[in-house]
Amino acid sequence: MTILGVVALPGVPPERLSSLAAVAEGAGLAELWLWEDCFYAGSVATAATMLAATSTLRVGIGVQPVPLRAVPLAAMELAALDRIAPGRLLAGLGHGVQEWMGQVGVRVESPLTLLREYTVALRALLAGEEVSTRGRYVQLDRVRLVWPPAGPLPLYLGTEGPRSLRLSGELADGTILPGGTTPDRVRAVRELIDEGRATAGRDDPHRLTVFAGPFPDGDAQFVADEVRALAAAGADAVVLLPMPAASGERAGPDHEAFVRFVAGAVRPLL
């Protein structure tokens, strides 16, 4: 059964996230996702807000740009969220939009090298290990979390390029693909991920999450058909993008209506 979720776009004001999360949980939605665009609300604060407002809803961060946070800080934040809401955090990492990374002074020469070093170190820290490393970008000296997650915390990589997708297969527990991804692209991505998994000798599950849309809340059969096509191509989870709010219109009510549409009209057709 394909997991069905919805994205809370960055334009949703932070003060509306608690009510949106409550609506999503009340409607029986499995997952509510957000992403960290510069210069909107930070993903840790917003994910914490939505987790605190709910008791069963899974909250996805898709994704945190790794140049913005030192690895120990990311580990401390993600571990704390997972301990507060065990099993409900879906943690996604990515290169970040390079223009924005340059704008804030954290752009690196090799984003792929940073993502590799960062992911390796973060996984080890979240596993409760003491980490020392002298990489090109990640340099740690006997760092260990006092409060690691109580259990395994899967890490997902949000990426598109062939080398990054192979890296995701090699190091991550799942991959996140952006809106506009077609079924043919899903199949091609699966092949690249599997190449990385083969390199690492991995045979554990690798979750493929596909953002789809944006979709207006109207034609439920059309949306359901799109979800089924992505699932048949290899998507394990499909996260639907609502239409952005019209100019001058508050984003919150649009999202709440879309959540109810997905849960009440689309899900029964799957």
Description:
This protein has 9 helices and 10 strands. The protein is an alpha/beta fold and 270 residues long. The chain has one domain (3-269): Luciferase-like domain (TIM Barrel, Alpha-Beta Barrel), CATH 3.20.20. The chain has an 8-stranded parallel barrel, surrounded by 8 helices. A two-stranded antiparallel sheet has the order 5-6. Strand 5 (131-134) and strand 6 (139-143) form a beta hairpin. Helix 5 packs parallel to helix 6 (162-171), helix 6 crosses helix 7 (183-200) and helix 8 (220-233) crosses helix 9 (251-266). It is globular. It starts with a strand and ends with a helix.
Please, what is the CATH homologous superfamily? Luciferase-like domain
What is the element string, with H for helices and E for strands?
Answer: EHEHEHEHHEEEHEHEHEH
The spatial strand order of the largest sheet comes to 1-2-3-4-7-8-9-10
End-to-end Cα distance, whole Å, is 9 Å
The count of strands amounts to 10
Structural class designation: alpha/beta
**Share of helix, binned:** 40-55%
Question: If classified by CATH, what would the architecture be?
Answer: Alpha-Beta Barrel
What ranges have pLDDT less than 50 throughout 5 or more consecutive residues?
Answer: 248-252
The gyration radius over C-alpha positions equals 18 Å
Tell me the count of domains: 1
Task: Report the top-level CATH class.
Answer: Alpha Beta
Largest sheet: 8 strands, parallel, barrel
Tell me the number of helical segments per DSSP (H or I, 4 or more residues long).
9
**Content of β-strand:** 15-25%
- Would you tell me the overall average pLDDT? 94
Label the overall shape. Answer: globular
Q: Kindly identify the CATH topology.
A: TIM Barrel
